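Lab notebook page, bench 4
Experiment: in silico fold of construct C2
Operator: M.H.
Input chain length: 220 residues
Purpose: comparison with the prior construct
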Amino acid sequence: MIRTRIKICCISSIEEAQLATAAGVDALGLVGAMPSGPGPIDDDLIRDIVRTVPPPVATFLLTSRTDATDIADHVRYCGVNTVQIVNHIEPTVLESLAKMTPQVRRVQVIHVEGESALDLIDDYAAFADAFLLDSGRPSAAIAELGGTGRTHDWKISTEFVRRSPKPVFLAGGLKPNNVTDAIRAVRPFGVDVCSGLRTNGALDAEKVAAFAKEIRGVDI
């Protein structure tokens, strides 16, 4: 039986971080400034939350910055142990970032808009520690870089997982009532969820518990 990791994103307070941690999640997502979408919080608050998170829970900083030095500065200021790069940056930027902050894990987001997403595996695999498949539209007039609440084509995600030499997280429209199907179809290393566990914008303890229960009951 393979254990699917759980990442809860859009954490907005120390209390939400504690709620998620108590539910046994593996990672927390903390959203920096974004052009659109839910969840961005001030960098000072991100830093305060990170200081309260016990090991071995991972802390992911979601950054929309595209310059290696800017990303490295963002990571260092917030004190996270993982950076989630939500733009399709130039691979050379990821290579430079690996040299600047070698102790920080690098997760490259791939927005699955079509089969062209598969072509990005080779571009990033050498310098990313993991991939995260999401449903954004980075080329939209106002870029969507996550938190859309939409699913994407899981057939493409399944093929991405099959081809990828690195672990793959699945995001995009996941909820307690569809996460089991998603895991069985795609077989990701982990799942990532934001809006699917919220009620009126707040992290919902009952939904978190239901989500975790569904995942732990999946036999793959």
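Observations: The chain is about 35% helix and 20% strand. The chain has a mean pLDDT of 93.
Next step: discuss at group meeting.
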